[in-house]
Every structure is written in structure tokens, then in C-alpha cells.
Design a protein that fits this description.
globular, TIM Barrel, eight-stranded parallel β-sheet
Length: 242
């Protein structure tokens, strides 16, 4: 990518960011909140270090990766970028935990008690606390990982006393291309959070849901952390309205 191409791509990223923030603000206001209450994660898993740096130059500060090896590569590329943060959003195998903890702000994809225990034990051994979200399969799709809502309702107590992790909230993914189902999914996550919060006393302040095609719906239903990839990085992606 030559300097002219870099400039054009940077300008596009900046334009996309402004448009996304406007759409987040509109959706947040529809649910009685401010857009500033909703965090924006740029999912950089499909782009290289150069595109990530250009995104930082365009104003993005929070990024997300789904593989430990790629996370390490991006961290190395971004080590001189001020204010940058990374989250882990992909399925995490227990034997890869040490490649992630201590390097990210938040692990979104704690999908089992076994994984929660592994993160807790290895974090405790390193004398750190890892902030995590519990992944919930609200839609019930067989292709998706995560706790079933009823499973989490019955089993969250087993994770409450784990030292080395801080359970900060919940994460989910909605069915693709089905706006009504997505809305039900996001509403269900918020309802589940409210019930768990009342029962356990945990704040569970973070609701991570909403991707490129459905983030406005997610924000309307209570999401305060959206994970956007294509709508940021793909020049050919046509943002969906509404």
C-alpha cells in the first residue's frame, strides 16, 4: 500500500468511525442513554498490522482479536501506539490461556466453568486479575458456544469465588440476517443479566453484543460494548441502516 492508498484508506476509516459513532448515539438515545456510554471495539482479526495502525491514526483506540497468535502479532505492531487496548473475543482453549492473560483488557469468551477455572488459576499464579465476560448462547444455535441461559442461572455460583478473575458481564452473538431474532437475543441477554445481578450481587456492568449488521439493535436493547469488523475495515461493506 503506497502513501496515496494509505491516505485514502485512513480517510475512509475516519469517515466510517464518524458514521458508526453517530449511529451508536442515535440507538443509545432511543434507549434513554448517551452514545458515550457505549464502547466501540474494532475487530482487527481480518486485517494486518498496517491497517490496524491506520485505524489508530483514524481515531480507533480499542481493538479485538480472536486468536492468541494473531493477538501477539498485533500487540507487537501496536506497542508504540498511545492509548491502545486489546480484547480477546474468540474461543479460547485452556492450553492457550497463558498467551492471553495479562495482555488484554477483557476476555469476552468464557464459555464454560472449566475455562473460567483455568483462567483464574493461571492468573492467580501470576498474581494478576483477569477481567472476563461469560459467553451466553441466548439464541440456542448449535453452532454457537457458550453457556445456555438456564445453565448459567444454575451454575454461576460455582464461579463467584474464583480468585484471579473478575466477572464483569455477559457476551452473546445473535443469529445472522434475522433482525427480529437478534433483538430477542439481545433483550434476552439483558434480562438474564438483570436476574443474575439481583441474585448474586455482581454488577455485571458490561453487555458485549452487536456486530456490523446488528449493532444498532444491540445498543437499543442495552449493549454497552459493540464489536465491529467489516463495517470498519472493509471498503466494500455497505452499512445496514436501522
Amino acid at each position: 500500500m503506497d502513501e496515496i492508498e494509505r491516505g485514502a484508506y485512513r480517510a475512509q476509516l475516519r469517515s466510517r468511525r464518524e458514521e458508526i459513532l453517530q449511529r451508536i448515539d442515535e440507538a443509545a438515545r432511543a434507549s434513554g442513554r448517551q452514545g458515550s456510554e457505549v464502547g466501540l471495539l474494532a475487530v482487527s482479526k481480518t486485517v494486518g498490522p498496517l491497517e490496524l495502525r491506520l485505524a489508530w491514526e483514524a481515531g480507533f483506540r480499542a481493538f479485538a482479536e480472536n486468536r492468541p497468535q494473531e493477538l501477539s502479532r498485533k500487540l507487537e505492531a501496536a506497542r508504540d501506539l498511545a492509548g491502545v487496548r486489546f480484547d480477546m473475543i474468540g474461543n479460547l482453549q485452556t492450553n492457550k490461556v497463558n498467551q492471553v492473560i495479562g495482555k488484554v483488557e477483557l476476555v469476552h469468551s468464557v464459555s464454560s466453568e472449566r475455562l473460567a477455572d483455568a483462567i483464574a488459576r493461571r492468573s492467580l499464579a501470576r498474581q494478576i486479575t483477569t477481567r472476563v465476560l461469560l459467553e451466553v448462547n441466548v439464541s440456542g444455535e448449535a453452532s454457537k458456544s457458550g453457556f445456555a441461559p438456564e445453565e448459567l442461572e444454575g451454575g454461576i455460583e460455582g464461579m463467584l469465588d474464583l480468585e484471579g478473575i473478575e466477572i464483569c458481564g455477559l457476551m452473546t452473538m445473535a443469529p445472522k440476517g434475522m433482525p427480529d431474532e437478534a433483538r430477542r437475543c439481545f433483550f434476552g441477554l439483558r434480562e438474564l443479566r438483570d436476574g443474575l445481578r439481583a441474585r448474586t450481587g455482581l454488577g455485571l456492568d458490561v453487555l458485549s453484543c452487536g456486530m456490523s449488521d446488528d449493532f444498532q439493535i444491540a445498543v437499543e436493547e442495552g449493549s454497552n460494548l459493540v464489536r465491529l469488523g467489516r463495517t470498519i475495515f472493509d471498503p466494500n461493506y455497505v452499512p445496514k441502516q436501522g
